[in-house]
Design a protein that fits this description.
Layout (H helix, E strand, L loop, with lengths): L1 E3 H11 L4 E4 L6 H10 L3 E4 L3 H15 L3 E5 L3 H15 L4 E7 L18 H6 L4 E4 L6 H13 L6 E6 H5 L1 E3 L18 H12 L4 E5 L1 H5 L3 H11 L3 E3 L14 E4 L8 H5 L3 E5 L18 E6 L13 E4 L2 H14 L10 H18 L3 H10 L5 E4 L3 H4 L13 E2 L10 H11 L5 E6 H4 L6 H6 L5 E6 L4 H11 L12 H7 L3 E4 L3 H12 L5 E6 L7
């Protein structure tokens, strides 16, 4: 059977279980959009801006653990998407980038074609773990197989496939009875000697502390992480990307290690061993990498470069979080280590102080936090922008399940919340999804409200309106005594919502917010909930 290369690519996507493709059709990707329409059951979502497409694919992947794709035009299409792709890269999210291109003879020729971008493969490659170009139809299966293997192995990050428009339209001889062979991926594990040395160190400590990052989430390591923590009697601090790696109401859960929420140093100082799993140890969680470490340190990471970066650890276990933690659990069991319920008193005292500091720093947002958490089920998903309102809650907002707290930790970009929530809702249609943004940040991607309306997605979008870029103003006032270029004239967000065909209402109390969320989650489409916010700086 003779297909076009575009149809062959779509056939590979479908065989690989890609659930959704986000993008905008145009001159250079029409054959792929036509193949999606005619030959595929993959959901195609028309976005209003390619930045939204990248955020949606990211949100889809974060909420579900399954890959989604963004189908981009060359030139302006890929550059529009770069912010969202850079966020996915920084936060280790597996987004498949289908970057279309001008015809092969014109690539990198700077001849003045529509949407032409010289060096495009390398530009998008800067936010991709793997890049490949399909030069001829006969390469479709091999490039797709190699790219999907890269997408699903090691550290999750975006993968780019560049597809010239003329290649898309050329015939591909691929008999229907010949299947697309999906790449097999094995979980990487460290050597037996390395595992045994780490088990000996764990068995010999009395005050262990676990630092769990996003690798615990992407590696599906929640159950074994909790099992190891219970065996050791080890409190678990998570990074923002690791939120949900242990249920917030577990006795050993400490909350998120973010310097805005609480000082982690005393808790680490009270421990005699730190076990770190799948974390980058970024600046904001390590006091600019000056965090003093205990005498014994063990680090697990699937990324060979990352495992040696930022902080120096004694034991390095290069491997998948779930598989490696499983080996540690088995080794501890064989040694008869079982400290369930027995947290050393010195570590327990430091943990109590750490938790109290989290609660204190929530400040005036406390009743709002309670209203939101009480309105959203344990498995409900929250997609939040960087906002002054949400910043106080980040360390203390109870997260019970993996993949239920989506936040742009890596790049800190504004405009993430709404489109990422759309992707999450499409990935998990039976679960509540709530977006939270400030009045400044929401306008970066507010036009994607039209996408949510068109897709009939019941997403409450809580807009915290303090008429400005609140987080930056807070920092400016602290540093200089006053702010500049941070006070904004905000629109009437209720009227704005109604203009798109969405619901809209305004709330002034936590009780009203709880009621509005209940109504919005039961609605037939999105609802914008405007919440005027006179921020009181927390102590």
């Amino acid at each position: 059977m003779s297909d076009t290369a575009a149809e062959g690519i779509v056939r590979c996507l479908e065989s690989a279980g890609i659930g959704a493709v986000f993008g905008i059709p145009g001159l250079y990707n029409m054959p792929l959009f036509e193949a999606l329409r005619a030959r595929s059951s993959i959901r195609v979502v028309a976005v209003r801006h390619e930045q939204g497409a990248a955020f949606m694919a990211d949100g889809y992947a974060r909420a579900s653990g399954r890959e989604a794709a963004c189908l981009l035009l060359p030139g302006c299409g890929v550059t529009n998407a770069m912010t969202g792709l850079s966020e996915a890269y920084a936060d280790s999210s597996p987004v498949l980038i289908l970057a279309t291109q001008v015809a092969r003879e014109f690539i990198d020729q700077n001849r003045g074609l529509l949407h032409e971008l010289t060096g495009q493969l390398g530009i998008v490659g800067a936010v991709s773990k793997h890049s490949a170009r399909i030069e001829r139809p006969g390469q479709v299966r091999e490039v797709m197989r190699t790219s999907l293997r890269a997408l699903r192995s090691g550290r999750p990050r975006p993968v780019q496939i560049e597809i010239p428009v003329d290649v898309q339209e050329e015939p591909l001889d691929w008999p229907e009875e010949v299947p697309f062979e999906l790449p097999s991926v094995e979980r990487a594990v460290p050597s037996l000697e390395e595992v045994e040395a780490a088990v000996e160190a764990l068995a010999g400590c009395s005050r262990p502390l676990i630092y769990a990052g996003g690798g615990c989430i992407s590696g599906d390591a929640r159950d074994v992480l909790v099992a190891v923590a219970e065996q050791l009697g080890a409190p678990v601090v998570t990074t923002g990307m690791g939120a949900g790696a242990i249920p917030a109401d577990h006795d050993l859960a400490c909350g998120v290690a973010w310097d805005v929420s609480a000082d982690l140093a005393p808790l680490v100082a009270a421990s005699d061993l730190l076990l770190a799993v799948g974390t980058r140890f970024n600046q904001s969680m390590t006091r600019s990498w000056t965090l003093p470490l205990p005498p014994v340190t063990i680090r697990i990471d699937v990324d060979e470069d990352e495992i040696r970066r930022n902080l120096t650890f004694g034991h390095l276990l290069l491997g998948d979080a779930k598989a490696t933690l499983g080996l540690l659990r088995d080794g501890l069991t064989a040694k008869g280590v079982d400290c369930r319920g027995a947290v050393d008193s010195r570590l327990a005292d430091a943990l109590a102080v750490y938790r109290d500091e989290h609660v204190r720093r929530v400040g005036s947002t406390t009743p709002w936090l309670a209203a939101m958490r009480g309105s959203i089920p344990r498995d409900g998903i929250i997609s939040a922008d960087m906002t002054v309102f949400w910043a106080d809650m980040l360390g203390s907002f109870p997260v019970y399940e993996p993949r239920t707290m989506l936040f742009p930790w890596g790049m800190g970009t504004l405009g993430f919340a709404l489109p990422a929530a759309i992707g999450a809702k499409l990935a998990a249609p039976d679960r509540p999804v709530v977006a939270i943004a400030g009045d400044g940040g929401v306008l970066f991607t507010a036009t994607e409200l039209a996408t949510a309306v068109q897709e009939k997605l019941a997403i409450p979008l809580v807009v915290v309106n303090n008429q400005g870029y609140g987080m930056i103003k807070k920092q400016q006032v602290k540093r200089y005594g006053e702010g500049v270029a941070v006070d904004l004239d905000a629109p009437d967000f209720v009227t704005f919502a109604e203009a798109f065909g969405a619901g809209g209402e305004r709330v002034n109390t936590p009780e009203q917010l709880a009621d509005a969320l209940e109504r919005a989650l039961a609605a037939a489409g999105p609802t914008v909930i405007e919440m005027p916010w006179g921020y009181e700086f927390a102590a």
